[in-house]
Amino acid sequence: MGNWHNADGTLDPVKVRAEYPIFKTQPGGRPLHYLDSAATGQRPQRVVDALSKYLFTANANPHRGAYTLAQMATDGYEAARARIAAYVNVPASELVMLGSATEALNLVARSWGKANLRRGDVVLVTEAEHHANLIPWQQITREMDADLEFIPVDDVTGEILWDRLDSLMKLKPKMIALGHVSNVLGSIAPLAQIAEAAHAVGALLCVDGCQAVANMPVSIPATGADFYAFSAHKMGGLFAGGGLWARADLLAEMAPIETGGDMIHSVRLRDADFTTGTQRFEAGTPDASGAVALAAACDLLDEFGRDKIHAHEALMIERVIRELPEALPDARILGPRDASQRAGLVAFSSDLIHAHDLAEILDRRGVAIRAGFHCAQPLHEQLELSSSARVSVAPYTTHEDLDALFVGLREARKVFEG
């Protein structure tokens, strides 16, 4: 086994933590128990080192200069693209490097949507979608006089009712847009089944993969998706960075929504011809250093083993689901109770303690969780919740982190029970 594993091949989070410098710090004078990795992953030393090396040895403008340093910058950027593409098992020629998954999803909605949606056409999303995969479709359907319809959720658990899909397919949607993993429910969408149903009626499938790519093995071709977006910072990369994979034939038909340098073939005073391929959608100077940092993060996640990451996170999540009702008896767990149906997060609510109060009390013990809508306000309104608390785990999450969580929950319960 590698440096990160136990003798039985399982991931050792204590060994993993050694790669993440932030755990050597004590924010607020307390050891850090970071349980908010669904919001952003911590940065490994390897990512910082790769970033520094690129900036200090190959810092020039990619795709532009004819001198040696500029060629080194270009080679480093394109090598990073190829590495990231390999991570999700797609051709580098079909991976657009962008500033975020939000930018990627807006590109699909604004470019593909504007070219293909007409009055009365249907776009189908779930009631649990992250705002980044909801609002772009709200806007483009309104602009094109198309219709936005929804795959519903259970009013109690929030679980997405995939059994309603067959009846919704009778609407003959042109696009189905949804998350691979819900950032509130933690549930893993049956993408292959959804893709089959979508393609049978001529629809395309656009997937927000932000909560999947760092937490479990993802081979995009196996999902059946036509578009797949992901972000760097949830994988241990930089905040600014993300990717959009799309089939080559779809990219060829799409118009760029940002224009400027580096995405043109030729320019005249009154018009311009755009270049082909992924560069068509990467206007301006690319964030080459961010791509190099993300490639380094991909290397490390593969060393950990994404199947082993998923197994470790399932173990952590199973404990959270099992012990949460004992620590906070009125906790309402959102999403499936079966940890095998989840990626690495659990959101819950309590009538006794508001999520923001809970997060503040836990912070006193160095426990960092998320509280609020988690960029899924319509889902919370559907569930009649003003907010929820969310615990999310990662390869570096230890049982000691969960011990601190449950001690903090019991402390909060005592405070509010009086």
Describe this structure as you would to a colleague.
By secondary structure, the chain is α/β, with parallel strands linked by helices. The chain has 2 domains: 13-31 and 305-417, Aspartate Aminotransferase, domain 1, CATH 3.90.1150.10; 49-302, Aspartate Aminotransferase, domain 2, CATH 3.40.640.10. It is 39% helix and 14% strand. It is built from 14 helices and 15 strands. It has helices at residues 13-17, 45-57, 68-87, 101-116, 135-144, 165-168, 191-200, 220-223, 248-253, 288-304, 306-327, 355-363, 377-382, 399-417; strands at 33-34, 95-98, 122-126, 147-151, 175-179, 204-208, 227-231, 242-246, 264-267, 272-274, 332-333, 345-349, 367-368, 370-372, 388-392. The strands form 4 sheets. A 7-stranded mixed sheet has the order 2-8-7-6-5-3-4. It has a 4-stranded antiparallel sheet with strand order 11-12-15-14, with helices on one face. Helix 2 (45-57) packs antiparallel against helix 10 and helix 11 (306-327) runs parallel beside helix 14 (399-417). The longest helix has 22 residues, at 306-327. The chain starts with 12 loop residues before the first helix and ends with a helix. The model has no long low-confidence stretch (mean pLDDT 94).
